[in-house]
Amino acid sequence: MTIKRNNNLILLLLAASFLGGSICGAADSSSSAANANASSYFVNSSSSYGVDGTHRKLQSTPCPGCSGRKCCLTKPECYWDGVARKCWLLAATPTPPPTPPPSSPPTTLQIVFSGTGSPPNPLPECHGDCDNDSECQGDLRCFQRSTTEAVPGCPGQATSGVDFCARRPSEDTVWLNGDNGSPAANFPLGLCEGDCDSDTDCQSGLIW
Questions:
Q1: What's the predicted TM-score (pTM) here?
Q2: Dist. CA 131–CA 142, nearest whole Å
């Protein structure tokens, strides 16, 4: 009886040893495969942050001149792969696209006539080039510009010196009605009208 028990005990121990070795071997193999897969994942398809906080793709190139963890963590251009225990190079920080120049604000001013004489038809509001009020539709008036003065009621900018038909809101609105005595039909100038160079350019009772 004693010998039989010992044989059984020996068989049980051998079986347990055999099964345990196989299981441990399988675990080691799986661990190695997992490490290999993880290493491949980190190198080829992952992305990370450098020390400088910039999000960049990982490269499969080792970090030049740096292989240890401490050294790697001080390199903004490198990343420490804790699975493979290697220091990889990060892709260069992408250059942001240049900031486009600010666009000019939309304009309502339109130059539809630039020839000599009068336009074939009276010009609508915010249209030019006019020479006098008779070239504008209805009660619109020709706003005489010498440079790039803003045209009342017509947002935007246009070529310097071009005159536009516009609506004068009131007599208190400053209005450019001519310059240097031209057009002659607009002189002498009324209240809040310009451009005058002396009292003689103004209507009676008004001063320069």
A1: 0.47
A2: 7
Query: Which phi and psi angles does 206 have, rounded to 5°?
Result: -105, 150
CB 93 within 8 A of CB 54: yes
* Short-list 187, 193, 127, CA closest to 163: 127
Close Cβ partners of 191 (under 8 Å, ≥ 6 residues apart) = 171, 172, 203, 206
Whole-number CA gyration radius for the chain:
44
Q: Is the dihedral of CA 133, 135, 138, 141 positive or negative?
A: negative
Tens-digit pLDDT profile for the chain (208 aa)?
444 445 555 555 555 454 444 333 333 443 343 333 333 333 333 445 555 555 556 667 888 888 888 888 888 888 888 888 888 888 776 677 888 887 766 678 999 988 788 888 999 999 999 988 999 999 999 999 989 899 999 988 888 999 999 999 888 888 888 777 777 887 888 888 888 888 888 888 888 7
Sign of CA dihedral 135, 139, 140, 144: positive
What does the alpha-carbon distance between residue 166 and residue 161 come to, in Å, rounded to a whole number?
15
From CA 166, how far away is CA 154, in angstroms rounded?
A: 7
